[in-house]
Amino acid sequence: MRSLITDMLLQRLSDHVHGPLHRRLYDCIRLAILEGVIGSGSRLPPTRDLAQALTLSRNTVSAAYEQLLAEGYLFTRAGSGTFVTDHMPDGAMITVNEQLPATERLAATELSRRGARLLAQTGASPHQWGAFMPGVPDVSNFPHSLWRRIHSRLIRRIKPDYLTYSRMGGCPELQQALVDYLRVARSVNCEAGQIIITEGTHQAIDLLAKMLCNPGDRAWIEEPSYWGMRNVLAINNVEILPIAVDNHGINPPDGADAQHAPRLICVTPSHQYPTGAVMSLQRRQRLLALAQEFGAWVIEDDYDSEFRYSGNPIPALQSLTPQAPVIYIGTFSKTLYPGLRISYMVLPNMLAEQMRLAHAELYRGGHWITQLVLAQFIAEGHYASHIRRMRLLYGKRRNQLCQLILRQVGPDALRDDSNAGLHLVMSLPPEIDDVRLAQEAGALGIYVRPLSTYYLNSPRKKGLLLGYACVSDADIEPAFKVLMTCLAQQTRIEI
């Protein structure tokens, strides 16, 4: 007896007449899943039954299923069959063309080539909370009542200027609060006029790429590196050259001819993302010397330096040499909460005024009230107190997760000895498919990121990024057991 799914696929296949059969079947099933026609948790017909009902070979159906399994749309349950996942793969979407009948697709508005490339390599996940989402702080511990009191106090006597556009690179009170904070916490010496407040680090990178790079200019980035940095640079037509990272941070080449020199050098020296490596003093000096030689700007992304659980704080690269060609970027997404959308740049004096004008022209700065509340939050000492409290909490959670990894996986899996940040890397053998493992864990509500996807080139190390900050102490061990179940299933299959 034919099922409703089979009838639907028969109809769709009759309208889908171009391309190999297995690809046409894959497209029909995938679109039906994305449209909700085949709901999450639905059981698909066995390959033999579907092949017979559609008058296709079983190999054709198997090839379509295997592709959907590999991409995370389906999962198998031993002895039960093949099911639609509850969690769509990161970046899964229906394009405008896919939603239209075949006869209308040519008339649809097409994305630009760079827009299509961007959507083909998206990294943003629809899940931003829970075990073990990397890079997310414990927002449930944010002092909301204290924040509300400051907000209520300030809003009663707010000036009209604070309700309009910002033309000064941000709230002056926040700029000055950052000057005072950064001098003590990160050894960054600057004046308020050198600081521009941005809506997140992505906006800061976007502004720098637009204002400092011509199409085709080159940027050195770390290999592996944060996908968001790569995508923002690529959408601005900046050529990306990945430079390998080792235990001492980025390892730049000895030299490059002036014709192929970088315009930007993008680094995370205090806690490399994602590996956790700390850039050595020798590498820092060499990087600054190369930047001077090439006339390049170093972009220092100091995204989570506040959370170091042992040893002395590591000064910012910007503080190493007077007049260093370094643009320092910090964020409150890791220390307070990501939805605040407040980051900042500390610019060399020669760039500050031009960037402030460009920021106002391109993004029309605002949110002055929020920035004013944050300035008071810092100036009154609440920010430093919050960081101290969260540092103790995150350090405890990191230690708990490390002990689980050492006990259940072994010392080879824990090569991340940075003892800092909001995540760690659990290394895996090269034969393990970390992408598939992350997808299988995600289907069970455990959100991890595969290390291999942070590389642009081969070879790609295998591993999982595990965020421990947004997992309660009581939930760490149960969530890790689920992850270990997924790992054990793949190990039986692959090894």
How many discrete domains?
Answer: 3
The CATH class designation of the largest domain is Alpha Beta
User: What strand order characterises the main sheet?
Assistant: 4-11-10-9-8-5-6-7
Overall helicity: 40-55%
Give me the CATH fold name of the largest domain. Answer: Aspartate Aminotransferase, domain 2
Average pLDDT figure: 88
The computed structural class is alpha/beta
Shape by Cα distribution: globular
Strand content: 5-15%
Distance between the termini: 39 Å
Describe the secondary structure blueprint for this structure.
Blueprint: H1 4-15, H2 21-35, E1 43-44, H3 47-54, H4 58-71, E2 74-77, E3 81-84, H5 96-99, H6 113-120, H7 144-155, H8 172-185, E4 195-198, H9 201-212, E5 218-223, H10 227-235, E6 239-246, E7 249-250, E8 264-267, H11 281-294, E9 297-301, E10 326-331, E11 343-346, H12 349-363, H13 368-379, H14 382-408, E12 423-427, H15 434-443, E13 449-450, E14 463-467, H16 473-494
Parallel strand pairs: 5-6, 5-8, 8-9, 9-10
Antiparallel strand pairs: 1-3, 2-3, 4-11, 6-7, 10-11, 12-14, 13-14
Helix pairs in contact: 2-4, 3-4, 7-13, 8-13, 9-10, 14-16
Describe the structure concisely for a colleague.
The chain is an alpha/beta fold.
Attribute tags:
eight-stranded mixed β-sheet, three-stranded antiparallel β-sheet, globular
Task: Please provide a written account of the structure.
The chain is an alpha/beta fold and 495 residues long. It folds into 3 domains: 4-110, Arc Repressor Mutant, subunit A; 157-381, Type I PLP-dependent aspartate aminotransferase-like (Major domain) (Aspartate Aminotransferase, domain 2, 3-Layer(aba) Sandwich); 385-494, Aspartate Aminotransferase, domain 1 (Alpha-Beta Complex), CATH 3.90.1150. It contains 16 helices and 14 strands. The strands form 3 sheets. The protein has an 8-stranded mixed beta sheet, sandwiched between helices. The chain has a 3-stranded antiparallel beta sheet with strand order 1-3-2. A 3-stranded antiparallel beta sheet has the order 12-14-13, with helices on one face. The longest helix is centred in the C-terminal third of the chain and has 27 residues, at 382-408.
